[in-house]
Design a protein that fits this description.
Length: about 350
């Protein structure tokens, strides 16, 4: 859904000495490289191809309507769809009235090459169906790097041109950008130039979303004035691979409030459609826990699946409460990821807050 941009006024940037200590730079780069090496690559292959039906015309007309309708919503809802949970493709079409944007995670830019173009081609018909149903299709482009020098190569006009070609080919409604270098000070200027060039090349009706990890310092993304929405990854309170809470609301609320004060109307906060049972990650749709038997602890459900292992998860009740709280803060909601959930969870994201 194509939202016309209304830029907020740019804040004056503070000045600082241009002199830089070489030893500090070297240490900063080592730390940054170490952090990026922890990033998990997401590779995948999808099979199959669709023909392009007559709904091309319907999708074209719908796209023209989107620029004046969906993006008028103050609290956008974004849902990621992964190839390893393809039920998300069907669920997106079934629940289109409760969503604003869908972000298929087909694309990855690594080793100076864009991967995933075949996956997009295989789903060309679905793209048209999604657009015709009123959804804005904003694919995620993962800029995957593990060194500072590689980051400088990828955050360049070459990757921008590759992204723009795909956007033009399928008439996408914008893009989601994710990279492990977001928030790393030594690359701040590089990321700023990249987002500015990408935004200007895509034009004013195609928003740019930037995924931001929860631990990133607010000040490091302040210069990114050309980013339309920051998508805050506000889940995995407990370190991956360990047992414990998934998304305590008090923790998420603190992050959302801090970010929304700094970036009003530009924040989208993530919620998980998966559960954590002990150290295991489980699709919520497959969870063998009765939500009515579970307790609500700090805004999330906690229940026993029958083997003595505590499962932390969201159900329609807690998601509705969380979504309403976000709306009152003036922020939107993103879902990771749609295929792990079911219809009632999606509907809860657009629930009637007056009935709570």
């Amino acid at each position: 859904m194509v939202r016309k941009r209304t830029r907020k006024s740019k804040k004056p940037r503070s000045t600082s000495s241009s002199a830089t200590n070489a030893a500090d730079d070297t240490q900063q780069e080592k730390i940054a490289n170490s952090a990026m090496l922890q990033t998990t690559k997401r590779r995948y292959t999808l099979i199959g191809a669709f023909s392009i039906p007559v709904i091309l015309l319907v999708a074209f007309v719908t796209t023209q309507m989107l620029s004046d309708t969906t993006l008028a919503r103050p609290f956008p809802t974004l849902a990621f769809i992964t190839p390893w949970n393809t039920d998300g493709l069907t669920l997106a079409l079934e629940q289109a009235q409760h969503l604003d944007y869908v972000a298929p995670v087909w694309y990855e830019y690594s080793n100076t090459k864009l991967h995933g173009t075949d996956d997009a081609a295989a789903h060309a018909e679905w793209i048209l169906q999604a657009k015709a149903s009123g959804l804005g299709v904003v694919p995620r482009f993962l800029l995957n790097v593990n060194t500072i020098s590689a980051a400088k190569d990828i955050l360049s006009i070459h990757s921008i041109n590759s992204i723009v070609r795909e956007v033009s080919k399928y008439n996408f409604d914008g893009v989601v950008v994710e990279t492990p270098v977001t928030g790393i000070p030594v690359l701040a200027d590089q990321i700023k130039r990249f987002t500015e060039k990408l935004s200007h090349t895509l034009g004013p009706t195609r928003p740019v979303f930037l995924v931001v990890p929860g631990h990133v310092n607010l000040a490091t993304v302040a210069p990114l004035t050309e980013v339309d929405y920051f998508v805050l990854s506000a889940y995995d309170f407990t370190t991956s691979g360990k047992a414990g809470p998934l998304t305590p609301f008090s923790w998420v609320q603190t992050m959302a409030e801090d970010w929304s004060r700094e970036y009003p109307r530009r924040m989208i906060v993530g919620v998980p459609f998966y559960a954590r049972c002990g150290a295991e990650v489980v699709n919520t749709k497959d969870l063998e826990v009765d939500p009515d038997e579970a307790l609500v602890v700090d805004g999330e459900k906690v229940g026993d699946r029958g083997d003595g292992v505590a499962c932390y998860f969201q159900d329609a009740e807690t998601l509705c409460m969380r979504s309403c709280a976000f709306r009152r803060m003036g922020v939107g909601v993103s879902v990771w990821e749609l295929g792990q959930g079911y219809g009632a969870l999606v509907e809860a994201l657009a629930c009637d807050c007056d009935k709570l």
